[in-house]
Structures are given as C-alpha cells and as structure tokens.
C-alpha cells in the first residue's frame, strides 16, 4: 500500500494528512510534499492519524520540517512509542486531534496579538 498526503487549509492553517506508511521507501517524496505545503506558511499541522507506520526516516523528515517551522509545527497522532524512544515529543508539539491543534495555534495567535 502506498502513501499519499492530503493537504488543505482549515481556518487559515495549513493541514497535511499522511496516509499509509511513512518510511525509507517514501520519506523523500513525503518530505517534498510537506515542504511545498509549508512554503509561505508560518504554521502547519501534520496529521499522522492515518499513517500506518513511521520509521526513523519519517522522523528525520519531520525534524527537518520542525527546523523550518519551530514551535509552529504540531503533529497530530495517537501516542506512539517511537516518539517516546526518539524523544521527538520533547521538540515537536503533539496533539490528539486536528481540532485541538487548530485551537492551540489559534490561541497562540490571540496571545501574540494581545501582547501588543
């Protein structure tokens, strides 16, 4: 089964949903899709809820995306042991649903505006 990435905007926030495996066989292709989706964006949500499995190549791809977006990248997924093992959750924010990720980014925007 191959992978694909569905990209759309939700309330002005770019969302990418990875379907299928995210591993050595397709990490380069998925990474290119995610980088294009993040172009000209300040924030992004990547959902792995439909991802059947992820390996270290998929993790490395997400870390590269995190390097560009920083705290403005949120992953959506069920708890996965690989994130605990690699320590990814220390660097990248993780939410359980796209809606909670959108709320978190929206609240951050409101807090920034209020600070001025």
CATH architecture: 2-Layer Sandwich
Radius of gyration: 14 Å
Question: What's the overall geometry?
Answer: globular
Query: What is the CA–CA distance across the termini?
Result: 49 Å
Share of residues in strands: 25-35%
Pick out the low-confidence regions. none
Total strands: the figure is 6
Element order, helices and strands?
Answer: EEHEEHEHEH
CATH topology: Transcription Regulator spoIIAA
The main β sheet shows up as: 6 strands, mixed
* Name of the level-1 CATH class: Alpha Beta
Provide a descriptive summary of the structure in words.
With about 120 residues, the chain is α/β, with parallel strands linked by helices. It contains four helices and six strands. It has a single domain (about 5-115), classed as STAS domain (Transcription Regulator spoIIAA, 2-Layer Sandwich). It is globular. The model has no long low-confidence stretch (mean pLDDT about 90). Strands 1, 2, 3, 4, 5 and 6 form a six-stranded mixed beta sheet that branches. Helix 1 links the parallel strand 2 (about 15-20) and strand 3 (about 45). The N and C termini lie far apart (about 50 Å). The longest helix has 18 residues, at about 100-115.
Topology (SSEs and partners):
Elements: E1 4-10, E2 13-22, H1 27-38, E3 44-47, E4 51-54, H2 56-69, E5 73-76, H3 81-86, E6 93-95, H4 98-115
Parallel strand pairs: 2-3, 2-4, 3-5, 5-6
Antiparallel strand pairs: 1-2
């Amino acid at each position: 089964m191959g992978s694909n990435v569905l990209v759309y905007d939700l309330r002005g926030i770019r969302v990418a949903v990875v379907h299928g495996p995210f591993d050595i066989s397709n990490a380069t292709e998925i990474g290119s899709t995610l980088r294009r989706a993040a172009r000209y964006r300040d924030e992004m949500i990547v959902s792995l809820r439909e991802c059947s499995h992820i390996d270290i190549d998929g993790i490395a791809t997400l870390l590269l995306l995190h390097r560009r977006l920083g705290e403005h990248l949120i992953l959506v997924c069920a708890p996965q042991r690989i994130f605990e093992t690699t320590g990814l959750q220390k660097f990248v924010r993780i939410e359980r649903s796209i809606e909670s990720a959108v709320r978190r980014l929206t609240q951050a925007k409101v807090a920034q505006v209020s600070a001025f």
